[in-house]
Amino acid sequence: MENTSHRFERLPASADERDVEGRATREAVLSYWTDRFGVPRDVLAPYTFWEKGAGKIWIAASDVPDGLEVESLGMTFLRTRQEHWKPTTNAAQRFGRHATRNVIDLSPADARAFVAGEDREVEWDGDWGYLIAAHEIADGAADEAREDADRAGAESSARREPLGVGLYLHGELRSMIPKGRRREL
Amino acid sequence: MDALERYEPIVDDYAAFREACERPLPSVVRANGIKADPDRAAAALEDEGVTVTRRAWNPSILEVDTDKPGNTWPYFHGWIHGQEEVSAIPARVLDPEPGDAVWDACAAPGSKTTQLADLLDDAGLLMANDDNLGRLSALRSNAERLGATCVAVTNEDARRFTADGFGIDAFDAVLADVPCTCEGTIRKNADALDTVGREASLNIAALQTDILRRAIRLTREGGTVVYSTCTFAPEENEGVIDRVLDDEPVALVDFDVDLAHSPGLTAWNGETYDGSLTRAKRFYPHQNDTGGFFCAKLEVGA
């Protein structure tokens, strides 16, 4: 079977159940967020995952029948069917608080440049590739997110808040904020 | 005769009403609990030099002393959404429970949809429909920025909408915030009164009635339908509800909103309406320094 771009098709639980070539599995999606960003599996476990549009993965709180032809279901979550998967800006904002690795903390000036869509030279001694960019803002980050960080022994802050996704290569952080979401702050 | 003059007999302190309609609206945002609690949103705005005034009736409503709340960090983070104060009434009146199946019949651009998602704790199924494809992109981008995952967006004529295929028999709660003549938006849209009047209201009332009937028929017995408009015209408010009370299994129920208001009308322009319409609420601009609004709560199967 091929991917049909106009319907929401449920991700198979695992590779054994896959009948659409190249489709990401639910297992692989959960593992990606855990392996890459340290997001605990129980954060994403309550959700359902769907593909509509080649490689475009959607996350939904609702469990609905397979194959719905609706305009949207939940939110766009992850870009797959490419060598390096890429979370969406909105997924990084919504679930990135639970991330405990590959989060790059930006200074106020770098954060402003990032949300304006600018690429910046930033110091980072971790992995290259897609990172969750964060900055500090008024405190009050949810306790649950900080508990995840504590459990992982990671740096946590009640003021840290994810901005979106950046691509880190050769000493430069490229902003992946889509045009419609950019702001001059 | 100007378009608002015909309301002189029904509006208390008509002079104050007219005077309020001339003034611009305060700038108001709703804090989005899916991504941040209102205290954190307010603190972050204050850090940017924005003065925030909380509203007692709804702690998520923040008055802000900036015309451009969209150019703030809390907006970028999806913690706030520009939403007129009275527009935040109907979702609170519908008050869905997490896990409910909810239909927002005329959802774009999504202020009330995302508020419903917040009240659902983003858990359940919220079908957000609009027949205007152009406005759906705003609905979708607002829902995503505010982090709502319980929303499914459809592009159907609400009068023919069906829940078939979504794995539910009927909705627990439906918001029918119907298209209207929008007289109550005069404080933000200077041309809002250009094409209004009794004729325009009677024309659109047929559509409103059909949408309300559909909302009632898709709601389970014991479920709730909230009907709302942003117009003063009784033809589009009490007149529509009076018609469906006659032949649909539905009754008006009381509700509380801690804002000044007037009861729904039982007589207008020589017609009389069902006595229970006093349970509906009219919100006039001079009562709370807001836009104009009408809201009614109906229980299905009663």
Automatic annotation (TrEMBL), chain A:
Residues 1-20 are annotated as: Disordered. This is DUF7122 domain-containing protein. It holds the Pfam family DUF7122. Residues 2-74 form the DUF7122 domain. It comes from Halarchaeum nitratireducens. InterPro entries: DUF7122.
From TrEMBL, chain B:
SUPFAM superfamilies: S-adenosyl-L-methionine-dependent methyltransferases. The keyword RNA-binding applies. PROSITE patterns: SAM_MT_RSMB_NOP. This is SAM-dependent methyltransferase. GO terms for molecular function: RNA binding; tRNA (cytidine-5-)-methyltransferase activity. The active site is at 230 (nucleophile). Belongs to the class I-like SAM-binding methyltransferase superfamily. RsmB/NOP family. It comes from the Archaea. InterPro entries: MeTrfase_RsmB-F_NOP2_cat, MeTrfase_RsmB-F_NOP2_dom, RCMT, SAM-dependent_MTases_sf. Gene3D superfamilies: Sun protein, domain 3 (3.30.70.1170), Vaccinia Virus protein VP39 (3.40.50.150). PANTHER family: NOP2 YEAST -RELATED NOL1/NOP2/FMU SUN DOMAIN-CONTAINING, TRNA (CYTOSINE(48)-C(5))-METHYLTRANSFERASE. S-adenosyl-L-methionine binds at residues 106-112, 130, 157, 177. One of its GO terms (biological process) is tRNA methylation. Residues 17-301 form the SAM-dependent MTase RsmB/NOP-type domain. Keywords: Methyltransferase, RNA-binding, S-adenosyl-L-methionine, Transferase.
